[in-house]
Amino acid sequence: MTYHIIAERPQDAVLLDPLLDRTFGSDRHGKTVYRLREGLAPVPGLAFSAIGAAEELLGSLRFWPIRIGAAEAILLGPLAVEPALQGLGIGRALVRHGLDTARALGERICVVVGEPNYYQPFGFSNAEAAGLRLPGPVDAHRFQVLELAPGALDAVSGLIDRADERAVAFGDERLAPFPVPGEHTGAQNQ
Ligand SMILES: CC(C)(COP(=O)(O)OP(=O)(O)OC[C@H]1O[C@@H](n2cnc3c(N)ncnc32)[C@H](O)[C@@H]1OP(=O)(O)O)[C@@H](O)C(=O)NCCC(=O)NCCS
């Protein structure tokens, strides 16, 4: 199975809701993470699609602006892969590429609510233990955080909040098409 990770295309955004319904179910909107990103756009340069040989959408990953007190951070998710194509490494390739790109863009802290077994290999660890809290109910063991820059969590703790002001403040330079460094294929990512 050959696939590529690319910057999300306008046509992918249209297909995303049906893909998320198929993977997460349609009751997903009540989750705390949805309220953090509701009405905001993903961080410019941090929305990715996995596409197949015919350029069809196979999977998606987006990151959203959040803040922890005065510190800027990003929220990973949703991560979704077409049900028939799960388990082929596409999800991990999206996460790896997304985190690498976030580091390259200077992001420092990444938060996720997801399965620890899936995210720990990328370096995520429990966020409650790191002193972070979400503004709503969450399964504590699924709430995780990753320092994208060493020491980024030093002196950062407390309540995670929406980053409406940051979404407005993104400069034009980050809205420019982001060059995707190299291409990921199934063969390279197994
Ligand atoms: C979770 C998901 C994004 C993973 O993508 P994927 O392309 O299927 O996963 P990969 O092929 O990269 O990785 C497969 C590995 O992840 C594990 N895995 C898959 N889904 C998992 C889950 N929900 N929890 C824990 N581990 C999971 C598999 O067991 C497999 O482990 P192995 O390599 O040790 O056998 C995809 O299965 C999906 O869309 N699921 C439905 C939506 C969802 O639950 N998203 C979670 C976001 S937190």
Number of folding domains?
A: 1
CA distance, first residue to last residue: 10 Å
Sheet with the most strands, sense and barrel status:
9 strands, mixed
Shape field: globular
Percentage of β-strand residues: 25-35%
Topology summary:
Blueprint (H helix, E strand, L loop, with lengths): L3 E4 L2 H15 L7 H6 L9 E5 L5 E12 L2 E11 L8 H15 L4 E5 L2 H4 L5 E2 L5 E2 L9 E5 L10 E5 L1 H6 L16 H4 L1
Parallel strand pairs: 4-5, 7-9
Antiparallel strand pairs: 1-2, 2-3, 3-4, 3-9, 5-8, 6-8
The structure holds coenzyme A.
Can you describe this structure?
Strands 1, 2, 3, 4, 5, 6, 7, 8 and 9 form a nine-stranded mixed beta sheet that branches. The chain has six helices and nine strands, in the order βααβββαβαββββαα. The protein has one domain: Gcn5-related N-acetyltransferase (GNAT) (Aminopeptidase), CATH 3.40.630.30. The protein has helices at 10-24, 32-37, 90-104, 116-119, 164-169, 186-189; strands at residues 4-7, 47-51, 57-68, 71-81, 109-113, 125-126, 132-133, 143-147, 158-162. Helix content is 26%, strand content 27%. The longest helix is centred in the N-terminal third of the chain and has 15 residues, at 10-24. It has 190 residues and is an alpha+beta fold. It is globular and about 45 Å long. Bound molecules: coenzyme A.
